[in-house]
Amino acid sequence: MRKQIAAANWKMNLTLSEAGTLLDELLKTPYSLKENQEAIFAVPAPYIPLTIEKLSGNNNFFVAAQNCHQKTSGAYTGEVSATMFASMGVKHIVIGHSERREYFMESDALLAEKVDAVLTIGSTPIFCCGEPLAIREAGAQNDFVAEQLKSSLFHLSAEQLLNVVIAYEPIWAIGTGKTASSEQAQEIHAFIRTVLAAKYGQAIADQISILYGGSVKAANAVELFSQKDVDGGLVGGASLIATEFTAIIKALK
Length: 253
Ligand code: PGA
Fold this sequence. Notes:
The structure is a single chain. The chain has a single domain (4-250), classed as Aldolase class I (TIM Barrel, Alpha-Beta Barrel), CATH 3.20.20. The protein is 43% helix and 15% strand. It is of the alpha/beta class.
């Protein structure tokens, strides 16, 4: 059964004490996640130890990093490697968020290296893809997203791909309050699965979790997550509000 995942992406937000308060509030609610359901918190790197401590004892709750360097170690001042994150107990790393692609010039080729770095250490990349508004308006989103997947993931073996989570995040829906409709989300998620199936076979494609991201909130999570090929969400703004993210976790199917 595919994993259903509510992933918080805090981005560069909150002070350490605000982070602690948010986690305390979130964890006041009792959750009884099913075996295939997970809540993942991609927090700023310095808050990882605090988050691990707060989440301990909560089954199927995990901390994630928001990015990593492609190399294991070396003279790369200011960078953090997947190996370092793994040594802290972090098993998931967001790779290729559109903000990294846009503001830090991360190319498909670089992201392929980062995906390798994460998989090599036995961790899970949450690989982001998604088209800008102009591409959507031109109706070219499928080709655009297929190209992103091919360029950064298709060098992987089927066995490696099984350890990848994909997050489809249309750039025009991120932080804008504009969400893809559940039909739009389902359509492109099904397309992504078709692209994976063409390369790796249907049985493999059926096991890959594909999250939707872009203005997911409590009010739209149930409908989005109920779509056949939507396996949860990657959530920015609403993950900073305890009541919102609690409801989003509870919306997992
Ligand atoms: P948003 O961000 O939920 O604030 O739109 C999603 C993301 O960037 O992952």
